[in-house]
Amino acid sequence: MPYFSKSSKRNLAQCHPDLITLFNEVIKHFDCKVICGHRGQAAQMSAFIKGNSKVKWPNSYHNKKPSMAADVIPFPVEWKNLKRMKFFAGYVLGIAQGLFNEGKIYHKVVSGLDWDADTILKDTTFKDHPHFQLIPPIKAAR
Ligand SMILES: [Zn+2]
User: Fold this and answer.
1) Which residues are close to ligand 1, an ion, with C-beta < 5 A?
2) pLDDT digits over 67-119, tens only?
3) Distance 66 CA to ligand 1 centre (A)
């Protein structure tokens, strides 16, 4: 069974409990790596300058404490394998929906491939393949 590396665990620990629950379930079935949890001011500025984020500090979901977003990619890492990242994103969203339906997480989850969660990908102008974020609470967070 796949398991998280130390750096993945450290990054995931910076995230909201719902993201921790979600990816601790995902990793049982689909090997992956958490490349980013919380982003401080300097890291957010760097991500913005590099074009990896469209927003400045403190407007990213990664800037919240705990982080309301996690960047997670399938393992082994293949940045150019966008099909596999899309495959992974669909897998994550399916697991997330199941956990939400079972009351194990309290937020719905959105992928950076489908920000408006309409399941249509061609209307997504900024595709952030590894990005998953929580939709503001339906119920009060724990
Ligand atoms: Zn992200």
Assistant:
1) 69, 71, 131
2) 999 999 999 999 999 999 999 999 999 999 999 999 999 999 999 999 999 99
3) 14
